[in-house]
Amino acid sequence: MRRAAIACSALTLMACGSPQSKRMQEVESTVRREQAPDKLVERGKLFAKMGDHTRAEQYFASALEQGADPRTVLPMLMRSYVESARFRSAVSVGERFLVRNPKDHALRFLVATMHSAIGQNDRAKEHLQRVVRESDGHADAHYALAVLLRDVEQDHLGADQHFRRYLELLPEGPHAAEARDSLLKALP
Predict the structure, then answer these.
(1) CATH of residue 180
(2) 114-164 confidence digits (pLDDT tens)
(3) Separation between Cα atoms, residue 181 and residue 188, nearest integer Å
(4) CA-wise closest residue to 63 among 50, 51, 84, 48
(5) Distance between start and end Cα atoms, the chain
(6) Nearest-CA neighbor of 113 among 82, 73, 156, 154?
(7) Angstrom distance (rounded) from CA 111 to CA 126
(8) Both 98 and 81 in a single domain?
């Protein structure tokens, strides 16, 4: 009986605007502010900068759950996974977001490179082919697909086509020398 009276008194005090009630409201307001997506992203960046990628992953994932823009946060989350050698986690989260955003070619390219890094070359090829089909001007996707075709599948003719397209898009790009050296027939 005494517990019930104490609980009733506490509820009455809170309802009447007691200092404890105001304090609880302040705490709740602080918690909401601290869980804001931008705050979570900033904390994630800080931990990533310090080299604590596990903690950074947690903050970036929480930011996404709280509504942060995936186009901004997802690359940072995936980079944290890569830095901590959790490639499969990077692939998994990337694939999940691709289901909702199938036209995000930058993400699809990143997922393709992660598939390649863990030896899932068939999945990497599928993603790269889709990127070059839907976004033909994506020079890095042409280059990555050419390398995969040349080195993994021994498809030198297919690789040649993508190396040529890469050179059309970025004739002085960072992979231009290798692309030229890999052509079946030299360009004039």
Answers:
(1) 1.25.40.10
(2) 999 999 999 999 999 999 999 999 999 999 999 999 999 999 999 999 999
(3) 13
(4) 48
(5) 96
(6) 82
(7) 11
(8) no
